Structure formats: structure tokens, C-alpha cells
Amino acid sequence: MHIGLIGGIGVAATVVYYQRLTAAAAALGVAKLELTIAHGEIQELIRNNLADRRAEQAQAFLPLVTRLKDAGCDCVALSSLGAHFCLDELAALSPLPIVSAVAPLDAYFVEQGIKRIGLLGTRVVMRTRLYGQLARTDAMALDDEIERLGQTYQDVAVAGTCSTSQRELFLDAGRRMTAAGADAIVLAGTDLNLAFDGQNPGYTVIDALNIHVALLANLASGRQSLSDIPS
């Protein structure tokens, strides 16, 4: 299956998607991964996300999805959990099936025996507790810190780098949520790998990117079909 990916939102997130997807596909024995990436604009996404302009962002993504379809892609995925704020609006317009990074998470947490998660990501992801898509998992965030954490995450995503002080802010937020009863801290922002990769924070960390990548690799290998995936 030919995978289409909307990247550039941000660039560091796109790079890690590419790295992990190629590795996951190779591990499944995919001899030739069919993958096409279209570049989106992160500043446009940030403006629309903060203003909750879902229809406008869906329209901005639509030409990229059309371009991926014209390139022969069978489905499309967004390389940003923050971009999923307009997923319903985009799905209504899209000429390709969209493989959500959010929809598979609830079932994954249940399978892992995780009952309560702490969220890190964009302001919207934290405020809405993953867009309200968790039916069987309790989610928490540091509500009094959402603005600070969300702005820091935005800064990291745009820059494609994470400073020592920014990393410590995220690591400490995870510690606080763990102390408040979270079974695991979920990196619900693709660029958070810049803060957490290579770290040993002393609590369980789940990178939502890896769950999405595993699903895309299964599709690329033929182990799953589009009819099997949650939407």
C-alpha cells in the first residue's frame, strides 16, 4: 500500500516519522516502501489551531491530499497530532482515507492495562483530552500549566530543537502527573521526541507517534487493510 504523509508540521516531526516508518516497514519485511510526503505549512496550522478554524485548516490540507492522491497514494496520514483538530472536517472533503493517529490510542491503552494517562502536547490536545476520543481511558493534564506547556511545545515544534530548560519543563510535568496518579505519560505531540528521546525520566512514557507508525507499517506491509483500522 502506498502511504501518503502530510509533513512539514513541523519538519522535525516529519523527519522522525520518516525514520521510524522506514525502520518499522523494514522490520516487517517490506522490500520497497511506497511513501510520498507533501509539505504543509506549520505557521498556518498554528494560527488555525489556536483560533479553532477547523474548516479553514481542512481546506488548507485538501490540495496536499489531492496531490498525494495524484501521486498514487492509497491513504493519507498527518505527521502531527495537533493537526488532528480538523480531522473530521478534512475527512469529509478528502479523496483519500485518512489514517488517524488518535483513534487507535484508546484501544492500545486498554490492551496495555493502562487506566489513566497524563498528556503532553498542544494546548488543544491537553485541554480536550485527546479530542475527547478516549472512551475507556481516563486522561489528565496539568490544567494550570496548559498555556505554558502548550507555548513551549509550539516553540519546540517550530524550531525543531529542544533546549535543556524546555526539556526539563516537560520532564517535570510528567513527574507531576505521575505523582498525581497517571499510569503513563503520553507524548501526544510528535515533536516531543526532541525532549524525551534518550532520557530516563523514571516513569512510563508512551510515544503516540510509535503507535501510529506501527499502524502505517502494517498497512504498507499488507498485514492490515484500511477496513481494519479505527477512524
Describe this structure in words.
Keywords: Isomerase. This is Aspartate racemase. GO terms for molecular function: amino-acid racemase activity. InterPro entries: Asp/Glu/hydantoin_racemase (IPR015942), Asp/Glu_race (IPR001920). The structure is a single chain. The chain has ten helices and seven strands. With 231 residues, the chain is of the alpha/beta class. The strands form two sheets. It has a four-stranded parallel β-sheet with strand order 5-4-6-7. Strands 2-1-3 form a three-stranded parallel β-sheet, with helices on both faces. Helix 9 (193-196) links the parallel strand 6 (184-188) and strand 7 (205-207). Helix 3 packs across helix 4. It is globular and about 45 Å long. The model has no long low-confidence stretch (mean pLDDT 96).
